[in-house]
Specification:
heterodimer, A: 764 residues, alpha+beta, Alpha-Beta Plaits, Calcium-transporting ATPase, cytoplasmic transduction domain A, 5 domains, 7-stranded mixed sheet, 6-stranded antiparallel sheet, 27 strands, 19% strand, B: mainly alpha, 69% helix
């Protein structure tokens, strides 16, 4: 808001670039800091802006119009709740300074999001708001004291000149409230009027002006029809209430929509990088390139994706994946940008920086979701404007109706009507709740790609899981190990484990992971592809050395006890005698059964759909506790299955790995992809699970239902409030101060109700 | 009673001064990071 006059007066001097104040942003090195190339659109860049001076959903439309009107700019999306804009633009046709200047002329301030300026400017805006509020509150108290004698003293006791003095003092102290505290209302209203639109602030500004004008007339001309008794006390009072509402709403909103910003602020500004001479020096994170070696101390966040080169530490990835447990990271393990180093210093070799990091993908995804307007919001936006026109007409009608009974009273009624209507409760109701819900989900590791999907997710009554990569991890697991009765089972298993450590085959890995004990070592190991391993296995001290075979029954060259079944088996022998057998199965995710039972508890049918053989699917379904399972389904078969469920009237949510099941995910009412298998930007699903906890599926459905409930409560409240209070004000039962209080309380209630959603998943 | 004719204008001036003082306090950042200041006393040095 502060920058608006400066920008407006300077105007456009050059065709491409805008104003000198922003000329610095036109350097490619600068705008690359807050922009990224658009994938699949040569020569186009995408940028995010933080907007200042936005008060309501209608403002978002104005900003959108302004940006769309610029040459070389398109795909503009503006979010009124988080006050952010996203746009795509061509460097040949336009430059950041041009948008800034255009927004400035329309009365909005804009900052490149992610810019360091942002923090300072936000703080200044908050301080100004606080000062406006304090002035209104303090003047309200003082004016009230000047008004008290007129209420308390018997008529005639106060001399006319003393009363004039009190009126004059009230007038002087109302002036700062009008000129300073009310400025946000006036500037927003002025902007709307100039663009021939009606925004939320027009009725408020009109109400304040009328009330102040009437009181001024009464003070300086007691003989006028406005009456000798000025009602100054009401102006500062309702302004104070309105500003209190705005202030609290702003803070709540910052906190609620803060999940995204918390995520954005995760990256450190600078990092210690190893220089050519081996010393470590602090450099800006944006100067990092792949291949750099950086030192990350305990308590610091990782600046980029990379691999641990030296050290061992626990890292906290909870904000990125929702996994609450700190993870151990040793040499060779990967770490992701934005996660925190907890216990000890690590040297990390940087692999991916900036927009290629997983962190950047998550942020981009969340930014995109928060800019989207669900259908309900668009509907409310459309009715807000006619509603405001109706309010203005109602106020005028009320004034005309009451005019014969006294001008002063008629004006007071009109002012009450103007102040009491609260379209903001209506327009805030849905986006506030949905953003709060999405923010809470993000903290649990569920990324919301489409806010709209939160609406449909609440109605889901059937969840269909894909098998491989979803219910199961993409590795094998030893489910049973057996040995002939005469042998020591542990010893046989440990020997198999020692041999298996030398191979990367999934079966070997599973056996090695299951039996990691290292009393035994293998040497001279040889792998016969697709059949097995053979090698010399001995104790650590070299004793007990023996040549062993691990692999399929035929490879082991020993009679294998007959155990039938479809299960995958591996055997250990010494070439003559059978030593041990292992049954392997796909590793089911540890919380699969728990997740399924949580969904059943919510009254949701759970089904398993897979391309795998019927027996394998049945076996897995039993382990996970899923009653309905369908095996041997081709991708077309899966699609047909989901379509059939839908035609039976079910609302289906499909959970898949996001890689091979694209069509099914797209066909389902709601889709969720496991985010670990695919680059996030490519996963075509409404929700993406950043971690690997399946129980988040149930949490998602529960949260979606809660969000739907809160949205309905909000809309119901907004409708009831306006339906009840506007007629009361028209009938003259609503003093102006109460009108101001009612409006502030109503919009606060909506935002506070939505803020409950930001907390409620933790209990689940 | 006549003293009121002096006191009321005085109180107006005083109120305007206080508004200014509030602005000074706000822009000095005195209403921000309240917890941080409260914790400072626990952190030695």
């Amino acid at each position: 808001m502060q920058t608006a006059p400066a920008l407006a007066s300077a105007g456009l001097s050059r065709p491409i670039a805008g104003n000198d104040a922003w000329a610095a942003l036109d350097e490619p090195a600068e705008w690359e800091g807050f922009s990224r190339p658009v994938a699949g659109r040569e020569g186009w860049w995408e940028s995010c802006l933080a907007l200042e001076g936005m008060h309501c959903a209608a403002c978002a439309l104005t900003v959108e119009e302004v940006l769309r009107g610029l040459p070389g700019v398109d795909a503009v999306q503006v979010n009124g709740v988080t006050a952010t804009a996203r746009l795509q633009w061509q460097p040949q046709a336009t430059r950041p300074s041009a948008w800034m200047a255009a927004l400035g002329r329309a009365g909005y301030g804009a900052l490149p999001a992610g810019d360091l300026l942002l923090a300072g400017r936000r703080v200044a805006a908050q301080r100004l708001m606080l000062w406006r509020w304090l002035v209104a509150g303090f003047c309200m108290m003082q004016v009230m004291m000047y008004a008290a004698p007129a209420y308390l003293a018997p008529p005639g006791e106060i001399t006319p000149d003393l009363q004039a003095l009190l009126g004059w003092a009230s007038w002087v102290l109302t002036l700062p409230v009008l000129l300073f505290s009310c400025w946000p209302f006036f500037s927003a209203a002025l902007r709307d009027v100039r663009r021939l639109r009606i925004g939320m602030d027009v009725p408020v500004a009109l109400g304040v002006l009328i009330a102040f004008g009437a009181s001024t007339a009464a003070t300086f001309d007691p003989a006028s029809p406005w009456g000798a008794h000025a009602s100054y006390d009401s102006v500062p009072m309702f302004v104070f209430f309105l500003l209190s509402g705005r202030l609290l709403e702003q803070r709540l909103r910052d906190r609620t929509a803060g999940a995204l910003e918390a995520l954005m602020r995760r990256l450190p500004d600078s990092v210690e990088r190893q220089e050519a001479d081996g010393s470590f020096r602090a450099v800006a994170v944006r100067r990092l390139v792949a291949g750099d070696l950086v030192r990350v101390l305990p308590g610091q966040a990782f600046p980029a994706d990379g691999e641990v080169e030296t050290g061992e530490s626990r890292v906290d990835q909870s904000l990125l994946t929702g996994e609450s447990k700190p993870l151990l990271r040793r040499v060779g393990d990967g770490v992701v940008a934005g996660s925190h180093n907890l216990t000890s210093m690590l040297l990390v070799r940087v692999q991916r920086v900036g927009p290629q990091t997983r962190y950047a993908e998550i942020v981009a995804l969340m930014e995109q979701a928060s800019l989207e307007k669900p259908g309900l919001v668009q509907l409310v936006d459309r009715i807000a404007s006619p509603f405001l026109v109706a309010v203005l007409l109602a106020a005028a009608a009320a004034a005309v109706w009451w005019w014969p009974l006294g001008q002063a009273h008629a004006m007071a009624v009109a002012v009450s009507v103007l102040i009491v209507t609260c379209p903001c409760a209506l327009s805030l109701a849905t986006p506030a709740a949905m953003l709060a819900g999405a923010g809470a989900l993000a903290r649990r590791g569920v990324l919301v790609r489409k806010l709209q999907a939160l609406e449909s997710c609440a109605a889901v009554d059937t969840v269909v899981f894909d098998k491989t990569g979803t219910l199961t991890e993409d590795r094998m697991d030893v489910v049973m190990a057996y040995t002939p009765p005469s042998l020591d089972r542990d010893e046989a298993c440990d020997r198999a484990g020692a041999l298996a450590r030398h191979s990367l085959h999934p079966v070997s890995r599973a056996i090695a992971a299951r039996f990691p004990a290292s009393d035994w070592v293998a040497s001279e190991v040889e792998e016969v592809a697709g059949r097995g391993l053979r090698g010399k296995v001995s104790r650590l001290d070299g004793s007990g050395s023996q040549y062993l075979y691990l692999g399929s029954a035929s490879f082991c060259r020993a009679p294998v006890p007959g155990r039938d079944g479809p299960v995958l088996q591996a055997h250990l022998s010494d070439g003559e005698h059978y030593l041990a057998g292992f049954e392997l199965d796909e590793a089911i995710r540890p919380d699969a059964a728990q997740a399924v039972s949580a969904l059943l508890k919510l009254g949701i049918r759970v089904q398993l759909l897979s391309g795998d053989t019927g027996q394998a699917v049945a076996h897995l379904a039993r382990r996970a506790g899923i009653e309905w399972y369908f095996g041997e389904r081709t991708p077309e078969g899966k699609l047909a299955h989901v379509r059939r469920l839908q035609s039976e009237g079910h609302r289906v949510m499909m959970v898949g790995d996001g890689m091979n099941d694209g069509p099914v995910l797209a066909a389902a009412d709601v889709s969720m992809a496991m985010g670990q298998a695919v680059p996030l930007a490519q996963a075509r699903a409404d929700f993406i699970m950043a971690g690997s906890e399946l129980s988040t599926v149930a949490a998602l459905v529960a949260q979606a239902r809660r969000t739907r409930r809160v949205v309905r409560q909000n809309l119901l409240w907004a409708a009831l409030y306006n339906a009840a209070c506007v007629p009361l004000a028209i009938l003259g039962y609503m003093p102006t101060w109460l009108a101001g209080f009612g409006m502030a309380a109503s919009s606060l209630l909506v935002v506070a109700n939505s803020a409950r959603l930001a907390r409620s998943t933790s209990g689940h | 009673m006549d003293i009121l004719f002096l006191l009321i204008p005085l109180s107006v001036v005083l109120a305007l001064l206080i508004i200014g003082a509030l602005g000074w306090a706000v822009w000095r950042g005195q209403f921000e990071a309240l917890e941080q200041e409260a914790e400072r006393i626990l952190h030695g040095d």
